[in-house]
Amino acid sequence: MSAMSIAKFECFFRVTAGLDVDKSDLKRYSDFVNQKIYDLLLRGQATAKANGRDIIEPFDVPITKGLQERIHDFRTIDEEIELEPMLDYLTRRSPLDLTYSEGTEAQLSDIGGGLSVALARTFKIIDPDLKTPRQSSGSVPSAFSTCCCRLQETTPGRMTGLVRVLSMSRPTLDALSQLMSERGPMAALLRG
């Protein structure tokens, strides 16, 4: 991966959530995005098979309203950063029983971008004061790694719930944050 791509990755997280990440976080980030895209494509494959088709069409992939809004946010942010080519490179095309249509192939980097926005904003929901999602000690997992691992363990239903939280309006998020701070940490949203 080129230094220019790493700089765009760092810039994306800075612009999206005010976070300082570095190239050591790129692998975990890439694994997270690829796993979630693969999960969505598996559901799309099941839908296509159920409808008697041998190609996964864009409408087969279960894009929730919240994820659609994060994709729109990504497109807005991407206009200035131009991260989509890097996401296209990072997004693995996992082999499935069915093939992807051209439309499905074309939307994968946008889905990855929407998931990236959701991930970046998750850090700020968990800890609004967080600036650097990593620990100084090499033996302690970074906040980036911990958050990605927690999100990797989520079921599609819990991921939908997280995306719903991320699509809430700012006043609603502030009220939820206040409620959670009175009852427990925001990390409770990610507990399994």
Describe this structure in words.
With 192 residues, this protein is mainly α. The protein is 65% helix and 2% strand. It has helices spanning 3-17, 26-50, 65-81, 84-90, 102-126, 143-152, 156-166, 170-183, and strands spanning 55-56, 99-100. Strands 1-2 form a two-stranded parallel sheet. Helix 3 (65-81) packs across helix 7 (156-166). The N and C termini lie far apart (34 Å). The relative contact order is 0.16.
In short:
The protein is mainly α. It contains eight helices and two strands; from the N terminus they run H-H-E-H-H-E-H-H-H-H.
Structural class given helices, strands, pairing? mainly alpha
Give helix % range: 55-70%
- Number of helical segments with 4 or more residues: 8
- Largest sheet, spatial ordering of strands: 1-2
Rg is: 17 Å
Strand elements, count: 2
**Coarse shape:** elongated
Helices and strands, in order, run as: HHEHHEHHHH
